[in-house]
Every structure is written in structure tokens, then in C-alpha cells.
Amino acid sequence: MRTFPTSMALLAGAALALSGLAYAAEPAMEKDGMLVDSQGMTLYTYDKDTANKSNCYDQCATNWPPLMAAAGAKDDDDWSVVKRDDGTLQWAYYGKPLYTFVQDKKPGEMVGDGKGGVWHVAKPE
């Protein structure tokens, strides 16, 4: 005879499943010795940024899109949320704001590494 969980057990299971959603995944991951976004695109740092402050706006941000953070995102261990001058939020790793590069067309490309002597592939610490 097959038994079915009671509604109380179902509610408990749902509560446990939802509790895992409260802990968002890190905004980036390590792959092949570098940080990549959720699409596998290479992330970069910019030498002209200061700790937890982006200095990449306008055309710079068009070419180097910031790794955006959702409203309500919170700092977590190595990750911090940077409030940009336009009010949007961006992820930073050890205080270094992170960006992708428009000329990287597929995951794993690193076309932006070394551009202008100020852009570098972000590497895990």
C-alpha cells in the first residue's frame, strides 16, 4: 500500500527547500584559475578603480559591463556590493569591482586581459 505525506510534512519539506534560497550563490566562480560569471564569461579588474569604488562609467562601462548585483544583495566573505555613481549595484571581489568585456564572445575568452595596461583577468585569492 502506498502512503502519501501529510500536508504538514509537505509544508516542512517546502520550508526546508525555500530556506536554501535565502543563501544566494556567490556572484562568480573559479574556472581554470580565473573568475567567471554565471555564463562562464571571464571577469576583469580595472587598475583605476579604488577599494569598493568603480571608476568605469559611460563608454568604459559600455565596453566593460559591470558585474551587476541585484537590489538587496549583501556583502558576503570575499564579496562586497559596490554602489555605483548611477545608483546601481556591482559586485566586487576583495574590494575590486568586477567587469566583463564586450569583445569576449564566448566563455573562456580573455581578449580583455592587459588592455590599456589597466585591465586584468580577475583571479581567485
Short description:
The chain is of the alpha+beta class. It is 14% helix and 21% strand. The model is unreliable at 1-24 (pLDDT under 50).
What does this protein look like?
The chain has 125 residues and is an alpha+beta fold. It has one domain. It is built from 2 helices and 8 strands. Strands 4, 5, 6 and 7 form a 4-stranded antiparallel beta sheet that branches. Strands 1-2 form a two-stranded antiparallel ribbon. β6 and β7 form a beta hairpin. It is globular. The relative contact order is 0.22. The model is unreliable at 1-24 (pLDDT under 50).
Fill in the keyword field for this structure:
125 residues; alpha+beta; four-stranded antiparallel β-sheet; 2 helices; 14% helix; disordered N terminus
Rough outline: globular
Strand content: 15-25%
Q: Helix/strand-derived class?
A: alpha+beta
User: How many β-strand runs?
Assistant: 8
**N-to-C series of helices and strands:** HEEEHEEEEE
> Whole-number average pLDDT?
85
Give the CA-CA distance, first to last residue: 55 Å
Number of helices: 2
Low-confidence stretches: 1-24
Rg from C-alpha positions?
19 Å
What helical percentage do the residues reach?
Answer: 10-25%
Largest sheet: 4 strands, antiparallel
- Please, how many domains? 1
Write the layout of secondary structure elements.
Elements: H1 7-19, E1 29-31, E2 34-36, E3 44-46, H2 59-63, E4 68-69, E5 79-83, E6 89-93, E7 96-97, E8 119-121
Antiparallel strand pairs: 1-2, 3-8, 4-6, 5-6, 6-7
